[in-house]
Amino acid sequence: MSDIIRLLPDSIANQIAAGEVVQRPASVVKELLENSIDAGATKIQLFVKDAGKAVIQVIDNGKGMSENDARMSFERHATSKISKSEDLFTIKTMGFRGEALASIAAVARVEMKTRQTGEELGHSLVIEASETKVSEPVAAPEGTSICVKNLFYNVPARRNFLKSNPVEMRHIIDEFQRVALSNPEIGFSFHQNDMEVNQLEAGKLSKRIVSLYNKNYQQQLVPCLEETPHVKVHGYIGKPEFAKKTRGEQFFFINNRFIKNNYLNHAVSNAFQGLLSDDQYPFYVLFIEMDPKHIDINVHPTKTEVKFDDERTVYGVVRSAVRQALGTHNVTPSIDFSADVNFEAFTEVLKNERNSSKERDYGQFKSDKLDNSNLQNWEKLYDFAEGESKVSQEQMDKELFGNIPEKTVTIESAANTSPEVSNEAAESSKSFQLHGKYIFRQLKSGMMIVDQKLAHERILYERYLEMLQNESGASQHCLFPQTVDLSMADFTLVSELKDEIHALGFVFDIFGKNSIIINGIPSELQGCNEKEIFEGLIEQFKRNKSELSLSNTENLARAMSKRSALKGGQHLEIREIDSLIDQLFACEQPNYTADGQPTLVILSLEKIASLFN
Length: 613
Prior knowledge:
CATH class of the largest domain: Alpha Beta
Number of domains: 3
Shape: elongated
Distance between the termini: 85 Å
Oligomer: single chain
CATH topology of the largest domain: formyl-coa transferase, domain 3
CATH architecture of the largest domain: 2-Layer Sandwich
Low-confidence stretches: 334-375, 378-382, 384-420
């Protein structure tokens, strides 16, 4: 029998290695930026075309390379930073992977120009699919320029698996932000399709954070510092009131290397305990400095996951650092022992109840069925309950609640609904609100309880879904257009969703770098804060995307319905209650929200009776 095991050709071996290192264009960006940092650059430029599929170019003013080093940098397992096995556990630099450039050159066309400080001439290399095409002296500025063209051109299966340009661009922006955050002393510039996306001057970390995101972050930053003999933690955390309902703005760096670590994330969450709800996530950029011999950074090929030899100690120091920052800067609420807490709480409740009806325009629920005031209606109901009124039951119902038209509700599947919910729920009109959250309605078979927020959410979901599918959203122009400053990632996301957002009824234009100006909003959102609604829509969209696999249309409909639905504690008049119930039972699926939460429950007479036995 002949031998069947043989060595792979270098070109194929390099392509296999590329599968680990080069997962998408953002992976190339990360490797090239980190190499420039290790070269001692003080200014780095990133140019991207076609979301990195056509061109990725990084230019730096670092120390450059000699002719021999330039050629060796594209060989597998070639490195300047490892000479013995012990060196693997003392590395503090970034782009030390020996096969990174070799892997990139195996799946793209790579052009390099480099010149060392003090040399008259530099050197130029052109490599295609691991084969050197050009190697010659060339006039070049000090530093290194690497241009990667036509990524995965010789691996069509890998190229076909790349996502759309906006998605790949968001990944590139994420990598750029991480590198820029961890190196505020270096100036960065970022150009996409010949347009400047960001220009970052060298400076302090706080300035870098504000430059990367927007000026609103300046007022939420709280400095954080904790130092022990073995571990040092420093950076910034965000104030609790600025926390968001989506992850994505939480950054940990170990010796300036970005990492993902749920254990350390829990340490920060634990420090914020009592200040945030479970579905809120604070902003933070925290740097951990410790001896590399206590860290294993070779857990994952991308180096984003690490292991500590003493995780509990690091956890404790991080939690202590965040708690101390919150306490030192008076972020945690203080207790006034001279005040009567019970009396103040009672006063606040009264104040909220008086003002709740003024906080929102409920025009979407109003109808012309009633002319009597809500106060008069309740007085009549009270008189009737006391037996002081001689009006018949039928006449009282008519005066209080009007004539509710009969509705036929079609349920798609019996498995998705409760058998007790039928036309009687739509026909009945004996309703009242409890604590501004729940609506009670009498049925022939018992009682129905509706969660007003979830019910409104279902109504709006079907309405917005129809708008998106038919591109029929109506807009009303803003009297005073509002400017919204976005992060690079959010700006890219909004650009990607521009047509869908317009279909909802929003009208906006690009207004400078990473900013938009809102000129119109959906017509049913009268009296709302345009900026707050828009920012909430984007945050909810990102949250849905991180947790669920949805189309953009479905995601936007869900996000918009959640962010614009009635809030708990908001008072509704009788006609608004009736209108809400009518609209709910006109939905295709009135029993559940889009994410499966029940909008209503039924208590049968038997169930109610059992509560007293």
